[in-house]
């Protein structure tokens, strides 16, 4: 269902997620894009292979590696398990 804001209707799910993230309803973690790529390449995995191992879609992995999207804690845990590392490793350090 589209969200209404003033006179505009937002149909983009990405934009809706950003609005929800600002309101505190959706927790998104910042991923260290270089570290995620490095971990995937160290295991000699393509994005499609990581998708098959982790259950995280190829598009989500691509958006995370390109810095276009953060990750939910569940997504971070799935990727970390598939890559054989602790969940904190692919996250951006503060």
From TrEMBL:
PROSITE patterns on file: HTH_CROC1
Signal peptide residues on this chain, from the entry's feature table: none
Pfam families given in the database record: HTH_31
Chain ranges of the HTH cro/C1-type domain: 36-91
GO molecular function: DNA binding
UniProt superkingdom: Bacteria
InterPro entries the record matches: Cro/C1-type_HTH, Lambda_DNA-bd_dom_sf
This protein's name: Helix-turn-helix domain-containing protein
Species, as recorded: Rubrobacter marinus
Lineage: Bacteria, Bacillati, Actinomycetota, Rubrobacteria, Rubrobacterales
